[in-house]
Structure formats: C-alpha cells, structure tokens
Amino acid sequence: MAATTEHSKTDTDQNQLVELSPGMKTKVRTPERQQLLRLEQKCDVAQSVLKQMTEDVKRAKDHSKRELENYKATLEEADIHLAEVKKERCQFDRDICKALQDKTCLTMSAEKVIRYIEDRIRARENLIEKLHQKNTALVAHKKKVQVQLKQQKEMGEGLTAVDFELLKAENVKTRKRLDEQNLEHLDLKLLAGNALQALNSNKKKLQTLTLESDVLNSDIALRGKLLVKIEEEIKQAEEERNKAEALNRKLKGQLADYHVPHVLEYIEVKESHGQLQKSVKEWERKVEIAEMALKTFRKSWDKLRIAAGARPVPARHAATGSGLYGF
Known about the structure:
Layout: H1 2-14, E1 16-21, E2 24-28, H2 39-101, H3 106-156, H4 161-256, H5 263-307, H6 315-322
Antiparallel strand pairs: 1-2
C-alpha cells in the first residue's frame, strides 16, 4: 500500500498540470535525477588528473631544459664563430690591407691575396682533418663508455641500497662541481669581455696620444728652426751693435779732441753727427725690439720644452739674453 502511494506521488510529480491561461492547461515533465559520483570515485579521478598534470609538467620541464641547452649551445657556437671571424679579419687587415695601402706594392697585391686565401683554405682543411680525427676518437670513446655502462647496469643488479645511496651522493657532488665550473666559466667570459673593451679603449687613447705627440713634435721642430733663425739675427745685430759702439767711441774721441773748425766744416760735421745719432737711435730701437722678441720666443720655447718633458734652457743662455744689450 505504501509502495503504491509513493509510486502515485512520483507520477503526480512528473506529470504536473500548469495553468497557463484561463481555460488552458499543459503538462510539464520534471527532469530526471543525475547520477552523482561517490567520494572514492572523485578521489580516483582527481588523482588520475593530478598524475596526468604532473607528467605533463615534467615533460614540459624536460622539453624546456633541452630547448634551453640547445639555445645555450647555439649562443656559444655563435660566440666562437664571431671570435673566429674577428680573428680572421684582424689577420687579413694586418697581412693584406696594410700592403694594399702602400702604393709601391700594387703589383704584388693580387698574388699576395691569392696566396693568403690559399694558405687560409689549407689551414681550414687541416683543421677539418684534425676535427674529423677528434670526432672519430670521441665516437670510439663513446662506444667504449656505452659498453662500460652496459656492464655496470648488468653488475648493478647485485648492488645494495647503500651502494645506490653512495652513487647518488657522488652524483650530487659532481653536479654541484659542474655547476660551479659553469659559473666560473661565465665569470671568465665576462672578465675577458671587459678586458677586451678596456684594451680597445686604451688603443683608442694611444692613437689619440700618438697623434698629439706627432703634432707637438712637428711644432717643436718648427719652433726650433725659428729659434735658430732668431739667434742668427741676434748675432748679426750684436755685430752691428759692436760696430756702432766702436764708431761711437771713435766719434766721442774725436769730440774730446774737438777744436773750433771752419763754419762750413762745422755745419757738415754737425749734419753728419746728427745723422749718426739718428742711426744709433734707430739701431738701439731695433736691438730693443729684437730683445723683446727674443724673450717672447724664449718663454714659448721653454713652455714647449717643459710640455715635451725636456730640460729648461740652461742658465748661461738666460744670462746672455738678459745682459746682451746693456747700453
């Protein structure tokens, strides 16, 4: 009786009448109940999904690690290739370009370039042969190591858990040592790059200083020629001054022995004396100008010698310049 009542209730629940509008009714079927998973089933599903995700993450990590190692190897290969290209360029500039810049070697330039290219090709072939031999040796060593690993795997069946733990510890130490060596290798690469930059900077500074030194040497040579010319002019002026002094002394002696001459003779002598005095003043003015020019050029010359690291002008030259023309 109770079962019949429950069955009738479910039928009435599934076939409910809904009044849409006055005079119209329709049946609405209720949705069937969905089958729910038990707790154990949910746990199994979650564990399987977690296991699958863990495997996916592991595969992704392995793939990323392999890609990263490939990229690192590609970068190292590119660095090695770039270093080789730079080295070849420097050798070509040193052996060929400098010879081509010399106009006297134009007839031998083509033969020298061909000989240089043939030498480089021959060196490349020798390097390829060496690398091929090295590759053959490495393949043989690889086969030997694979045989040893196979033997170790066959013997490893009889190893104990303690041996495996020792091998694991040794593997960890080896990996740490390898990581330290890789870091040291990177540090050495950075240090070599910094040293190369410093070397290039010092080369540029050396070129600049060499150009400045050449300019200063040419300027010093020009000033030296000018100083020699000025010293010759000073010697000539000194000789003329000595002649003028001798003439002046002669005229002073004549004036000391002076007696009243004839009027016409007096006028001629007076006119000649005036011209001589005028000439003496002109020469004295020339000597003063020459002394001023000498002092100016001597100061410039001392500055240039001090800037070039040479010793200053000896004291005897300074004494000669200061007391050369004391009237």
